[in-house]
Amino acid sequence: MAPGLNALIPSSLFGFSSFTIYVILIFIAIALIFWGKTSWKIIMYAMGAYIGFMFTSIMLIRFHVTTLPTFIILLIGAVVGAILVNFAAKAFICFVLAGSITLALYLFTPINTIVAAVIGIIIFFICYVRFEKVSLYVAAFAGAMAMWFALVGLGVQNLSAQVVAGVAMIGGIMLQKYEEDLEKRNKKIPPFMRW
After folding, report:
1. Helix (H) or strand (E) holding 190
2. pTM of the model
3. Are the C-beta atoms of 161 and 148 separated by less than 8 Å?
4. Where are the domains of the chain?
């Protein structure tokens, strides 16, 4: 195992062994790599619902000032949390991508700061509007990183884990692009002519 990875996941987490956590992480990585757009939404909404639920339950315990039933308040908290976390994750990813491109433009080209910032803002809005396309690549990259981490945690050599994760990421992106093209072609064919 790579030095330092033992410290990242304890031997027991939420009652599960570290081996179980790594196997679950591999399944999440596979979902992110090969079904990026769909699994990305599910994971973000689930995390948001969980965070919203937990925040709302803590607020209900601390300040119980409502006469509504508790489950309705918790449901509202979960829905609001899911929407907010999905929005925050999209905005953060678009900000990081736009900021990275802006920084690269500023450092490696003769563009001044104001022009680089304007280009960064434009890239941010394009990225946010076209997040459906961006999420495919972001999810594949996140899945590859999770797969690498889990494989190294399970005892696979670092370089081998990187190669497996990289090949899986490229294969997942190619498979999703192929499925997109197939979907577009099937939309062009009238339904009565489809096999």
Report:
1. none
2. 0.67
3. yes
4. 19-180
